[in-house]
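#struct-queue
[09:14] JT: dropping the first one here, sequence first, then the C-alpha cells:
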Amino acid sequence: MTHPSNNDGLYKNLLKQVEAVTKHINEGAFQSRARNKTAANVFIQFLAEEFRLQKIANIKPKHIEAWVQHMLDADKATSTIMSHLSGVRHVLDKTPVYKGPFPENSEILALQHIPPRAYTDVERAWADSEYRQMIHLAIVLDEISVARVMQLAHEIGPRIHEALRIDYADAQRSLRTGELKVKGKGGKIRWISIESKPRVMKMLQEAMKDSKPGRRIFTNGKSVEEMIKHIQYFIRKHRGKFELDSRILQKRDGYYLRQMGKKYGYKPHITYHGLRHSFARRTYLELRKQGESHFQACKRVSQLLGHERETITNIYLGELRGGKQQ
C-alpha cells in the first residue's frame, strides 16, 4: 500500500499522470499489473518528497539512481530493488511523455555497485573495530544520540524505528523493572531484558538526563522519520573511513562477488541494520556456550530480534546458520 507523501499535492499530480497510463495497460497477469503500479506509485512518492518533481516527463537517470540508493539505505534486498525497477520501467515505457530511455538493470547495478543477484554471502555484521571507531567518531562530532542508538542496536538489537520510539517513560520503567518495552512491526510489543546489560542501563540513564518526561529520548526533538534519515546519513557519510575490505564471505557466492568487486568496484557497506546482525551473531554464540542447542539458541535470537520465522533469523546468523560455532 502506498501512503501519501509530505508533498501531497505533488504526489497526487504525479499519481494522476501515472494512473492515466496504467488504466490502459491490459497486458500481463493482473498480479503483475498491480505489482508494477505499486512500484511506480512508490517511485513517484519518492520523487515528490525528495525532488519535488511535477512531471513524469522530467524524470532523469539521476532520479532513478537516487531512488535505488534510497532503497539500499533502507536495506532492501537486491531482488526487491530489481523487481521495483522492472515495474517502474514497464509503466514508464508505456508513458508517451517520458523520453527515457530507462536504464537497463545491468547499468544501474554497475553505477550503484550492486551485485546482480541477492548478496546472501555478504558479511553484514559489523566488525568490533568498525563499531568502536564509528561510536568514537559520533561522540567526537557531538552526535550523542546517534552514538546511543547505534550502541542500543549493538547491545540488544532493536530495529532503528523501534529504538527511536523509546520515550522517557519506557526508559524509566526499564531501569526499574530490568525490561525494556519495544514496539515492533505492526504495533507488536516485546520486552527485552537489560538486567545483565549495565552499559545499556547507564546509557538510558544518561539519555533521560538529556531529555524530558513525555518525550522520545533519542530523537533530539526531530520526528522519528527525520532521525532515521539523519542516522543513516551519518553512517553512510563516515563508514568509508574505517570499513574493512573483507566483508565478502568465502563460501558459495563469495568468488562471484569478489569478481563483481574487481569488475564494478562493488564493496558491501556497513549499515545500521548490520548492527542487528552483529547482535544476533554474538547472542547466538553466547547461548550456545551456555549449553543451548542450535534450535533453542536460534529461537531465542528470533524472539529478541522480533522475528516470527527462523528462516529470517538464519540470514542474520550468516556463517553460523545450521549450527556452526566459531
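[09:21] JT: and here's the second one, same format:
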Amino acid sequence: MRPSIASAPGKCILFGEHAVVYGYPALAIAIDVSSSCQISESDQNGISLILKNYEQTFSFLNMKDLFNKIPSKFSQIAIGLKLFSKKYKILMEKIEIEIQSDLWPESGLGSSASSSISLLGALNEFYNLELNSRNLSTLSYEMEKEVHGKPSGIDNTACSQGGLIFFKNQNFQRFNFLKQFQILITYTGKTHNTKEAIKNVKEFCDKEPKISTELFNNIGKITEKGLKELKNGNLVEFGHLMNLNHQILMEIGLSTTDIEEITRISISNNAYGSKLTGAGKGGCVISIGKLKDLKNIKEKLKKLGYSSIITSINNQGVKYGK
C-alpha cells in the first residue's frame, strides 16, 4: 500500500485575539506554511510514531500502550488517534506515522491544530474514509478541547478549510480570499503560554471592568472594519487598524520588549501595520506592506537575531499528497 500524505496550513489572527473569548468578533487567515503527516504500512507489529521536529521516535505495542506511555507533551496526538479509532471502529496496527511542521511551536500560528489536521487527513486517506474538511475540523476541535479546555474553534476551522475566517457569536464565515497580499511573520524566539495569557486578561477584566469593556468594544469595531477594508483591498487602512489593535493589546499587558522592538522596526521601515498575533507575551508579530519593504524589514530583524518568513493566504486548507 502506498503511503498516505496530508498537509494542513497554519493560521494567524489578524484582529480580535482575547476579545473573541468575551463574545467579540475575530478575523483570522490560513497561511501558506504548513504541517504534514505521512502514514505507511509497517512490517513491524504495533504503532511507530516519528516526530521529525523533536527528533524522536516511539514504538508502541498497540493503542492502549501508546496512550499510556506517550510523553504528556505529545498527548494531543494520542487523543486524536484514540478518538479516530473509536469513532470509525478502526484497529490501528502495523502502521508508521511521521509528523513534521514548518511552524514554530507555541507561537500563535496554530501549529497544534495544523499538525492535528494533517494527522487526521493522513488517517482519512490511509483508511479510505472519504471525510471532508468539516469532518476533520470537528475531530480536531475535539482533540483541542481535550488538551486546551475551551478553544474558540478558530484554529481548527482555519487550518482545515483555509481562506479568511470571520468569527462572531459562535458562528464562522469563510471567504475564499482572492486578493492575495504578503504578510511578514516574525518569531520573538519565545514561546507563549496561552492559558497564562488568558488568565492575565481575565484578571485585568475583573480589576478594570469598565476599561476592559471599552477596550474590547474598540477591538470589535476594529475587527469589523478590518474585514471591510481587506475585502476592498485597502491594505494601508488595514495596516492602520492593525496598529490600533496592537495598541489596545499592549494596554492590556500582552506585549513584551521583543514584540515592541519588532513592531517599531517594522513601522519605521514602511510597514503599513504591525501587531502581535495570538496570545501575546511572546510568540509572533505580523506585519503587512509592500513586498520590497517586508524583505528589507526581514533583513533588519535578522541582524537582531529574529527569524521571519514572508507568506500569504492559503485558500486550500487540508491537502492530500506531496
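[09:30] RK: nice, looked through the second one.
[09:31] RK: The mean pLDDT is 92.
[09:31] JT: good to know. The first helix runs from residue 63 to 69.
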